[in-house]
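Re: the multi-chain job from yesterday

Posting the exact lines I submitted so nobody has to dig through the queue logs.
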Amino acid sequence: MKPVLKLILGLGLLTQASVISIGSATAEDLTLNALYMKQAAYSEDDIRAMTTAFEKDNPGVHVNLEFVPYEALHDKIVAAQGAGSSGYDVVLFDVIWPAEFGKKGFLQDVTARIPADYNDKIYDGAWTTVDYDGKRWGMPWILDTKYLFYNTDMLKQAGIAEPPKTFAELSADAKIIKDKGISKYPIVWSWAQAEAMMCDYTTLVAANQGTFFEDGKPAFDKGGSLEAVKYMKQSLDDGLSNPNSREYLEEDVRKVFSSGEAAFALNWTYMYNLANNPKESKIAGKVGIVPSPGVEGKSAASAVNGSMGLGITANSQHADDAWKYITHMTAMETQNKYAKLSLPIWKASYDDPAVTAGQEQLIAAAKSSIGAMFARPATPSYPELSAILQKKIQEVLLGQATAEDALQDAVKSASKLR
Amino acid sequence: MMERTPLASIFVYGAVAALVLSILAPVFWLFIMSISSSRELTELPLHWIPQEPDFSRYIRLFTLQEGSSGREFLYAMRNSLSVSLMATGVALVAGVPAAYSFSRYPGRMALLYGVLVTYMMPPVALILPLYMVFSWLGLLNSQTALVIVYCTILLPFVTWLLKSGFDGVPIEIEQAAQIDGAGLFQTLFYVTLPVAAAALGTAVLFALLLAWDEFFYALLYTSDIRAKTLPVAIGDFAAGRATDYGLISAVGVLASLPPVLIGFFLQKSLIAGLSAGSVKG
Amino acid sequence: MLFAAKSYNFAATGSRERIAWLFLLPMLAIMAVVTGFPLLNTLWLAFTDASLTGRGYDWNWSGLENFAYLIDDKNFRVALGYTFYFTIVSVAIEMVLGVLVALLLNQDFFGRTLVRTLMILPWALPTIVNAMMWRLIYNPEFGSLNALLLQFGLIDFYRSWLGVPGTAMNMVILADVWKNYPLIALIVLGALQTIPKDLYEAAAIDGASPWKRFWHITLPGILGPFSVALILRTIEAFKVFDIIYVMTRGGPADTTKTASFFVYQESFSYLRAGSGAAYAVAVTLLSAMLITIYIIALRKTEHAP
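And the result, structure tokens for all chains:
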């Protein structure tokens, strides 16, 4: 049966000379296939340059790079298991996937490969990116979190001297700005039904010292996790948050903030440089950045872990070389050299003048935010848990349910997850 | 056509104007976005006409440089064209005889419905098993894989559309050709197909555009400029953390040109074919 | 070329069967070879509890368990509801609009060929571009729809289109209709052109009203291609995925989450290949049911006049 099938399908090839499978390597040289995403904090050019440096140091090893949209990254990694050993060797993965990928055997356990002295040199928050079940499933690479951005001009106009340090202050400042007519809706968020909302929500949970799970059971219907949703809804009701936040993703937030419509915005590191770029933004030079606020008596600042790591796929036949490549990509020298677009995972980097030059304000905010980075729940069924929470929180924000009811429902559904 | 009253003429032209406007307005806006700077696109109140038209994106899309968006775009254009043309070709080669069979030798329609059922399955359910097959054949990231998949998407459409076209061709003219000594294939190619030219044209256009449009299979089965099609490239352009909507708009405008041109020429030849057709009164 | 097979003839009934099958062979072969394996694979998975892992499927037979579960699944029922709404509303509008526009384009007017070519334009925009374009048009702050409506005094303030349950689905439908009705129009137009003009002239001489002429000449003439278009569009609409993926990702609060999206999440995001396949089979069966109803109804229409 099989050869016949192959023959029939093979006939279709006669006209096609340019058939290349992703895994084809020539006899003497070794080819690694690596999967990255388009949106990586590092630009495609940076990643290519880093890889070229690796190839130069390791003659005979060639690295094939593929870039896909973030939205397709998970699907591509999942589908590639069907390609067996001709699939990817190295993949970039999001902080929310190691549990799933580790448990289901998509990634190799690399705990034993990581040198012991790395533990203290790299931020703990970065390590949570690759940890699950007491093992490490890769090396952290892109370190990212959401910051509070503010329009310095608007704050000055409103007579606000200092950016807010707590969420209560944020609301109070926003109210002043709204009442003075400086901005109709002073705060803008990304609360569309998407992972973006989960990141904003997690930030608020962190600030309120909430938890997602208690003793392995879902517990987001009480304490800080409930407070977080109530805050979101309240700020919409008070007209302090842009009601369109409910359909916005990060890019929409950037546009609204950059056009000078909003005084405050919560967004990833990347917005800092873009909002300061006159070609993209009307408020270039008027952009302030601080860690996302805390809550009085509970926290000084808050942050969500939005990092990503590099791992070796379970089917890779070249694990040693793949690890060598990952080690190169995550090395301090490499990261320091390209620190303009993505901040390093290494603690020492943040005191290196080569890294801090020109972005002192960002580095200052990063130092305190990275220490506070809070992880979204590390569970193999995270994608489903996230979908449940997104839907339920949206119901609250749309006024279809109270925060209590919606979150209780969510806990009920989440308890059934395996 | 019969004479129209002036009132009817006014109505016809009014309706045509409304139609043209409804089609052009969104595309016009797409074009405006493609020549506006990122800053101007977030200006309030909205600028209908950009103050400084910026055609740089179009220039960028036509520069063939290593790692440039033009390179990605032009290769994707090439891949999309060749994949849709090849898939349409294969679908016609298999679909024309099948449609003829369904039309002239009735009694097997259940088969066509059976084929349709495979088409009702959400593609996400078929995508992984096919991925394994293509990986095993070494066909991932090749135009061939896409041609094969698209061909199965196009076939039910093409076959059925052509069948209903052939149904409209009077059997008498085929019989006349037979009496003149024409074989079955000659009858099909020289008599039936020309008469059913309108249906054939619609089917070709339909097939081309269906293949032109497909996104999800292409997203998973291709990985670089050797096989990525336009929708995948567009997805890539949309993905950068800083999305340049102007660039996506420019790609969108350019991506719609080839089908429109093909459709234009197809229609011209169709109208010619129609007036040359033997049964039109 | 194919002309080598010259010897075929309209032969006696015995070989008619053979010719019929011979002509079908290429199509059936392609369909069987390419879709056969994935289809069987999906059917098999539907009766297992398979989950996708890095080593392939991890599975046990589970009999009808998946189907028992999905019948009880409220979320799936809700998603099906939205799918039916999307399918029925968008296909109905596309069909009516398509026929009306085809009738219009069949009239004589200045620039007819140009307008006909223009009809290809929406259809030529790839779905993803179409979805992004409409998303930008609907953007509550910088979109052109709000600006336009405000300038014409139709609304008093900028409003949200894709963030409001209910409205969001209708706006997605609008975007879908805009792209797809020209297709119906062109298919119907093609059929209209094959209706001999003397039929109309004869009817006009007999004094038949325009409505009667439409009912007795036009409708029977376009019914074949029209029903093909209707059925194919229905199948397509029932599987709707890309446009939703780009425009709303199922939001707000799942009110645009359709069945295909459901299957996608189940098998790709949650890696539950078994129940994902069962949902896919259920979607296929429902779609087949819908089509069967159509076909029966169309048969009746065909025989009615």
